[in-house]
Write a structure and sequence with these properties.
The chain is 2% helix and 57% strand. It has a 14-stranded mixed beta sheet with strand order 1-14-13-12-11-10-9-8-7-6-5-4-3-2. It has one helix at 41-44; strands at 8-13, 22-27, 30-35, 59-65, 69-77, 87-97, 102-112, 121-130, 133-142, 145-153, 163-179, 182-198, 201-210, 230-238. The protein is globular and about 55 Å long. With 240 residues, the chain is mainly β. The longest helix has 4 residues, at 41-44. The chain has two domains: 22-132; 158-239, Outer membrane efflux proteins (OEP), CATH 2.20.200. The protein contains one helix and 14 strands, in the order E-E-E-H-E-E-E-E-E-E-E-E-E-E-E. InterPro entries: CHP02001. It comes from Pseudomonas azotoformans. Residues 1-20 form the signal peptide.
Length: 240
């Protein structure tokens, strides 16, 4: 079920940690990145998005080595307001190119909620990088649920200069959640993002939805910021 809900966010900033900005510095054999968007390729497709319209601070860091080993943390929500909870997504992995056109990447990402520890979970992920396009999958098998995700980022193929990324996840709950008229044991959600730079402004159009609707949304606990269909338009620009 789609409910028209469009958020337009103009981030006019001057800081290196601004929306969609990355601060990068070399530390010996390591490459350090700080920013308000996750920078790791495969993990970036799995980090839970910041809720549109949220006034919470979000950001993280990524540290990688020339050998292909990397690790990092990203917080989509710092939990600074009474209506939000602190979340920290930590990941580590390894990537290796076979040549300039093909490579692979594997890793582990952990979703942590310090104030809600029973919700902590982790996912194993892996995928291929083909001609600049990333195709991957992840799987988690926690005691109370199983999640399986397929995602693709067509960054190497951009018709009309438009980047496209997609994600589809199925969720299997260990214990059914009671809703009006029955119970929910499984559901799925998905999202599609279109991005393009226009006159120095980073534009992102995101559509997300799930197989649940109406009262069944009380059982939703997926990766999207909300259960029902949501169309989000984001615009970001820096002045440096």
């Amino acid at each position: 079920m789609f409910k028209p809900c469009i958020f337009l966010v103009f981030a006019l900033v001057a800081s290196p940690l601004a929306e969609a900005q990355i601060f990068q510095r070399e530390l010996g054999d390591f490459d350090l990145k700080l920013g308000t968007t996750p920078s790791r390729s495969m993990a970036q497709g799995l980090v839970k998005p910041t809720s549109p319209g949220s006034d919470s601070f979000h950001g993280g860091l990524d540290l990688s080595h020339d050998s292909g080993l990397y690790f990092g943390q990203f917080s989509p929500n710092m939990g600074l307001s009474s209506s939000s909870n602190l979340e920290v997504d930590s990941y580590m992995g390894f990537k290796h190119p076979f040549d300039q056109t093909l490579g692979y990447e594997v890793g582990l990402i952990h979703y942590s909620y310090p104030k809600l520890s029973p919700l902590d979970s982790q996912e194993f992920y892996g995928g291929l990088n083909l001609l600049g396009n990333r195709f991957g999958a992840s799987f988690s098998n926690d005691p109370d649920r199983q999640d399986s995700t397929l995602f693709a980022d067509l960054g190497g193929t951009q018709p009309f200069g438009i980047g496209v990324s997609m994600k589809y996840t199925t969720h299997q709950l260990g214990t059914p959640v009671s809703v009006e008229g029955g119970s929910i044991r499984s559901f799925s959600d998905w999202s599609v993002q279109f991005s393009r730079e226009w006159m120095g402004v980073d534009l992102n159009l995101i559509y997300s939805d799930s197989s649940l609707s109406g009262g069944d949304c009380s059982a939703y606990s997926g990766h999207n910021s909300q259960c029902d269909g949501l169309l989000t338009l984001k615009a970001a620009r820096s002045f440096y």
